[in-house]
TrEMBL record:
Pfam families: Na_Ala_symp (PF01235). This is Transporter. Keywords: Cell membrane, Membrane, Symport, Transmembrane, Transmembrane helix, Transport. Belongs to the alanine or glycine:cation symporter (AGCS) (TC 2.A.25) family.
Length: 496
């Protein structure tokens, strides 16, 4: 197992190194930002209003509301990456890594918009009458010929494997270790409870997941952010210095201080981008799967709603975690027992404990990590089942839900160093075909986005008004009609 973990780690280092995914992710995000005219900046307020206040389009096709699709995607992304991942990035890459997480998030909003647009644009209806879409479909349907089909199948296989890593065992393992260290709960007990809870939610499919995530995801985010804001207000004098440290370190690297290992600029960039993607998943294509299930009257509208997911995840939650770690001085805290920097697993907990009275900090991080990680399990189960359906058809969806729930127990009770490295590797392998597809299909997305926003700049058009100005657009009639997906006889590329 150690040898396998080392192999996965070596492959992951190449994929996430300075010559493969990092330039591709940042370059794609920058290119899409330019093609879309800075959409994520100029339409953010309207997108937040549409997703958080209006929440759904009346009389629209789909399985769950736009708000539920957003919370399902947030459930999958707001996980251990927002607590442990941020600490890892800062602990290894220095405070400057937070700056590169911001860059990844801001540019990633354009990528998230594009993949969500495509998820809705090329979605179809499966044998159970549910909407199904994502890179496993739009890569094949949007890019004609063998290359598009290859990219789609490559993504589907990578996503199916990844869901058991990033979306299952690593999350269960984090919950089990946290509860064992905090309350001496045996890992097997945590495993049994999580397995039962997972089965109870997942057997109901996307509608059940949507109801659950819409109920507790907003609560857990507000709960965590409120605690972070309390700490930042109490340490308001240190915030300017924290920002100065972040921006300086992003371009100069951190010199060695005590037991803290100095980091070069490339390390700050590498860990900032890698942990940023682990947190917000922009460019991975996963959120497009949730977006495809949304009740929406046009792909542009759901694309904008999905775009806010990255803003909430990175610009709000990640920033809160990072600033708390830096303003409290925990990022370079030395463990007296070892003489070395404290581990990332302890860093966020120490920061909140230092910033809040009594045991509140410990409770906030413990409860937050448990809720964030469990929500990730729910969101990623849906991503996994949609790719299982793409590869094998609808008949394996229910068995997958049961197996996925049982694997949570394995994650809770097993040492997972190899699985963490495997997760990083599979995340990268998911992103590669998706990013290629986003670049190839970007022209169509930009063109159709401009057309829609020309006629509905405030996102207030009714379904009838949208149909009136879209009636002659290429592919509109096919999109409204949908088609059957999930079986081999309907997997051929076609114009949608």
């Amino acid at each position: 197992m150690d040898a396998l973990g080392t192999l996965f780690g070596d492959i992951s280092s190449v994929i996430w190194g300075p010559f493969v995914l990092i330039p591709l992710l940042l370059g794609t995000g920058l290119y899409l930002t330019i093609r879309l005219g800075g959409l994520q900046f100029f339409k953010l307020a309207a997108a937040l209003r549409l997703g958080l206040l209006k929440r759904k389009d009346a009389d629209a096709e789909g399985d769950i509301s736009q708000f539920q699709a957003l919370t399902t995607a947030l459930a999958a992304t707001v996980g251990t990456g927002n607590i442990v991942g941020v600490a890892t990035a800062i602990g290894i890459g220095g405070p400057g890594a937070l700056f590169w997480m911001w860059v990844t998030g801001l540019l990633g909003m354009a990528s998230k918009y594009t993949e969500a647009y495509l998820g809705v644009r090329y979605r179809g209806t499966d044998a159970a009458g549910e909407k199904s879409g994502g890179p496993q479909y739009y890569l094949e349907r949007g890019i004609k010929g063998p290359f598009g089909k290859f990219l789609a199948l490559f993504f589907a296989i990578a996503a199916t494997l990844a869901c058991f890593g990033i979306g299952n065992m690593t999350q269960g393992n984090s919950i089990a270790l946290n509860l064992e260290n905090s309350f001496s709960v045996a890992p097997w007990v945590t495993g049994v409870v999580l397995t039962v809870l997972s089965i109870a939610v997942l057997v109901g499919g996307i509608k059940s997941i949507g109801r659950v995530t819409a109920g507790f995801v907003p609560v857990m985010i507000v709960f965590y952010v409120a605690a972070a804001i309390y700490i930042l207000v109490a340490n308001v004098g240190g915030i300017p210095a924290a920002f100065a440290t972040i921006f300086t370190d992003a371009f100069t690297g951190t010199s060695a201080v005590g037991g803290f290992t100095g980091s070069a600029i490339i390390i700050a960039i590498q860990y900032g981008v890698a942990r940023g993607i682990f947190s917000n998943e922009s460019g991975m294509g996963s959120a497009a799967i949730a977006a495809a299930s949304a009740q929406t009257t046009h792909p542009v509208r759901q694309g904008l709603v999905s775009m806010t997911q990255t803003f909430i995840d990175t610009i709000i939650v990640v920033t809160c975690t990072g600033l708390v770690i830096i303003t409290t001085g925990t990022w370079n805290l030395i463990d007296e027992a070892t003489g070395e920097q404290i581990s990332a697993a302890l860093m966020t907990g120490q920061a909140f404990t230092h910033g809040l009275p009594g045991e509140w900090g410990h409770w906030i991080v413990t409860i937050g990590l448990v809720m964030f990680a469990f929500s990730t399990i729910l969101g990623w189960s849906y991503y996994g089942e949609r790719n299982i359906e793409r590869l094998f058809g609808r008949k394996l969806v229910m068995p997958f839900r049961v197996v996925f729930s049982l694997v949570v127990y394995v994650g809770c009770t097993t040492e997972l160093t190899a699985v963490w490295n495997f997760s990083d590797m599979m995340n990268g392998l998911m992103a590669l075909p998706n990013l290629i597809g986003l670049l190839i299909l970007s022209g169509m997305v930009a063109r159709e986005t401009r057309w829609y926003l020309k006629h509905d700049p405030k996102l207030e058009a009714s379904k009838a008004q949208i149909e009136d100005f879209m009636i002659d657009r290429p592919g509109w009639a096919e999109w409204k009609a949908g088609d059957v997906v999930g079986s081999s006889r309907n997997r051929g590329a076609h114009e949608a």
